Amino acid sequence: MKNIILGVSGSIAAYKAADLANTFTKEGHAVHVIMTASAQQFITPITFQTLTKNKVYTEMFDEIIYEDVRHISLAQKVDIALIAPATANIIGKLAAGIADDMLTTVIMAIQKKPIVICPAMNTAMYENPVTQDNIKKLSGYGYQFVEPREARLACGDLGKGALANLDAIIAAVHRLLEQGAIV
């Protein structure tokens, strides 16, 4: 059994993260979901709690546990972190070193473990030079990306920006879990 953090940010593709949580849980992994406030506009925490049988983290300070600093303890026990879907906002925050919510704080505290980011956004946002620079920057730090696919997007546009096929995301997670820690 591996410990997987599944970060969910605010994209219409957030509902697909439920399938990822369900798949990894059925494989016997402990899935710990962290949702941004925007993600909660698309799907509720109870969905993930039901699928994973674990607490879903939505707030940085929703509980005070004196023997445990939650964002650090989650980061220390993780075998892999996956952000799916990852918006331009979350990618930008991570590239800038901004840790202002539970998801970005936990990700910033992870050391020597794989972090997989699965972008999902409008084509113009994905192709924006700022987003592309942020992806290059994070890739340089060792973050792994599963490229979005071309499809008809929720806004009606046709282009690259749809969340990668779930099989591709699952395969990337499996491959990185087999490889182990990043040195």
Q: How many DSSP helices?
A: 8
Number of strands: 7
CATH-defined architecture: 3-Layer(aba) Sandwich
Largest sheet: 5 strands, parallel
Keywords: Ligase, Lyase
Protein name: Coenzyme A biosynthesis bifunctional protein coaBC (DNA/pantothenatemetabolism flavoprotein)
Organism: Treponema primitia (strain ATCC BAA-887 / DSM 12427 / ZAS-2)
Domain Flavoprotein: 2-173
Can you put this structure into words, describing what you see?
The protein is α/β, with parallel strands linked by helices and 183 residues long. The protein has a five-stranded parallel sheet, sandwiched between helices. The longest helix has 14 residues. It is globular, with a radius of gyration of 15 Å.
What structural keywords apply?
single chain; 183 residues; alpha/beta; Rossmann fold; five-stranded parallel sheet; two-stranded antiparallel sheet; 8 helices; 7 strands; globular
